[in-house]
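Sanity check

After download, print the first record. It should look like this:
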Amino acid sequence: MTKKLRQALVLLHLMTAFGWLAATLAVLLLTAHGQVEAALLVDDRLLADCSFMTVYTGLMLAANWGFTRFWWITVKLVTAIGLALGGRALFHDGMFVAGGVLMVAAIAALAWIGRTKPWGQLRPDVRVTPWRHPAIYLAILVTPVLDYVTGLPLQAIPAAAVLVSRTGRWPGRGVLSRPGGRR
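Expected structure tokens:
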């Protein structure tokens, strides 16, 4: 990955993570003032996009580090995916305070993990090879914008391509086992 493309992807990741945090705080503030319908609107229109975009860009960045090579990456991916799905489910069940507090605390913890990169290597024997063509990274950066503009779930296409190209297997069949899909 070229330095400029990686920096653009990191910037997009940080912007969507801050958007996720801001949208969560907005939902908490709106529900504190009895504006439940407005809170659900912010959740559906802003928080959902920011949370899934953060997970998406994190997945794209993690592909170069190795999904299971470092503890901090594995923990961030599992936590962010669970939070994006589970935290929003709490909002729709009417548990705004619990969901909001959980999201704010977890996003802060994820930011700390991303900054400090604690815990060392999970699997030091794993070697990760970078992609060879910068057009892949350009597609990764453009897809979320097209996803938002068109309203279509286009993020799944490059995310699946990343998983397949980085592992040699379709998701659900040893994706996180070994590089190249070897067991």
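If your output differs, re-run the checksum step. Summary of this record's structure: The CA atoms of residues 15 and 54 lie 8 Å apart.
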